[in-house]
Automatic annotation (TrEMBL):
Residues 17-83 form the DUF202 domain. It comes from the Bacteria. InterPro entries: DUF202, IM_YidH-like. The chain crosses the membrane at residues 25-45, 57-79, 99-119. Pfam families: DUF202. The keyword Nucleotide-binding does not apply. GO terms for cellular component: plasma membrane. This is DUF202 domain-containing protein. It is a multi-pass membrane protein. Its main location: membrane.
Length: 122
């Protein structure tokens, strides 16, 4: 049986850029998983301590925000990945600064809440 040679795809012109795009996407997914993991850690730590109403509320807020941030990270990184794939092929790539600022702001918010919880309420 003779092998037929496949024609290069449009994506194959920019293999390095597409691979970098995939690595970036996977890094965002790992970030999302880490945020959820840290929230579960805080919730489990909180359950083992005596707690005030304020600390219980803060832990619930941290857990809810962690879920929201993780879902936003997954959705926005997926959309960004698809858009960047098209932009790479069309050679019209533009960085997604608003996405980065939005997700960084959410991560700073939850990090601040973690810090407040650990240093003042625990």
């Amino acid at each position: 049986m003779k092998e037929t040679k496949q024609q290069p795809t449009e994506d194959s012109k920019y293999i390095q850029q597409h691979l970098a795009n995939e690595r970036t996407f996977l890094a965002w997914i790992r970030t999302s998983i880490a945020v959820i993991g840290i929230a579960f850690l805080v919730i489990n730590l909180h359950e083992k301590t005596t707690s005030s109403a304020l600390s219980t509320f803060l832990v619930q807020l941290i857990g809810a925000l962690a879920v929201v941030i993780s879902v936003c990270t997954i959705v926005f990184s997926t959309v960004s990945y698809v858009i960047k794939t098209r932009q790479i092929n069309e050679q019209t790539f533009r960085p997604s600064r608003p996405l980065i600022w939005f997700l960084a702001s959410l991560l700073l918010l939850i990090t601040g809440l973690f810090g407040y919880y650990f240093f003042t309420l625990l």
